[in-house]
Amino acid sequence: MYENNEFEVIDEDTDINMYNYTISYLKENGYNQYEISNYSKSHFECEHNILYWKCGHYIGVGPGASGYIENYRYNNVESLDEYHSKLSENKKPLSNLEKLSIEDKIQEKIFMGLRMNEGIKFEDFRNEFKIDFKEKYSKQITDLKNKKLINESITGISLTQKGREISNSVFVEFIN
């Protein structure tokens, strides 16, 4: 549709209004938002997605699957024939293998953590990276709190509703 110009991109205000309507409608019908774009009934959150957003390890098996183990992210070839052929030759059926640097992992942890309603936990960040998040990002935290885009507690930070609406702008503040 998009390639044939049959798809019209909506303006930002309409996008935000639709997003807020979705949140209200789902909440009225018993669904809780647990991530920027995910909702569920209580105790029915998607565990795979939560693992992904918390930068947990997972194995991708099959054509086109992706995985993340230790410091490596990979994708398998998409073609079933090529996948089968590589396995038959005792080769890994990878189309892409990327080793993540510490900086890559820090940026990903921030981006993914802020997508979750629970946000980024200072202690988790310190345990994983040996970095004091509040100290390293004190300017960003202060600026974003003043703009009412994040909440800060003793244990961490999370996006406000306004912050969720323009989340990419918030993420960039920590990454640049």
TrEMBL record:
GO CC terms, sorted: cytoplasm
BP-aspect Gene Ontology terms: porphyrin-containing compound biosynthetic process
Keywords on record: Oxidoreductase
UniProt domain HemN C-terminal: residue ranges: 101-164
Annotated GO MF terms: 4 iron, 4 sulfur cluster binding; oxidoreductase activity
Pfam families: HemN_C
Coiled-coil stretches noted in the UniProt entry, renumbered to this chain: none
E.C. no: 1.3.99.-
Name of the protein described by the UniProt record: Oxygen-independent coproporphyrinogen-III oxidase-like protein
Organism: bioreactor metagenome
Origin organism lineage: unclassified sequences, metagenomes, ecological metagenomes
Gene: hemN_38
